[in-house]
Amino acid sequence: MMKNLREKQGKNRDTQMLSWAARMLYIGALVALIVLIGIQQSCNSSKPFSGTYINSAGSEFSLANDTLVLEQVEGNQYRIHRMTGYRLISDSGRLGSYRWEKEEWFAVYDPEREIMSEKRHGKQISFTADCSVMTVGRRAYQKIN
What we know:
The protein is α+β, with helices and mostly antiparallel strands. The chain has one helix and eight strands, in the order αββββββββ.
């Protein structure tokens, strides 16, 4: 009788342990699924646009360096700080003094069209797939950070 009681208690304990392990495995699988869905959603919904982009240009009349700093304001809305340094070239070919201009733009990203639209000037802004190059009109800006 004692032997039967021990066997019965052992089977009950084994059943309880198996039931507990099954519940823990089920809960762990649910947590992993929720985490994976969250990671996928964050990767699909936001691209790493924020950062600093630079462009250099020159002509027979001037040399210019453009810096655009993109920062996400909220959701798909971005603030763009534009800083342009330039030097005019005189008729004799001498470089003039360095001058600076600053502007602040606001833009909205449309994920369906994959285009960012600047509000004040109506500029269309696009990005390469890895966001390493931003194109504003016909000017390409290289991301540096």
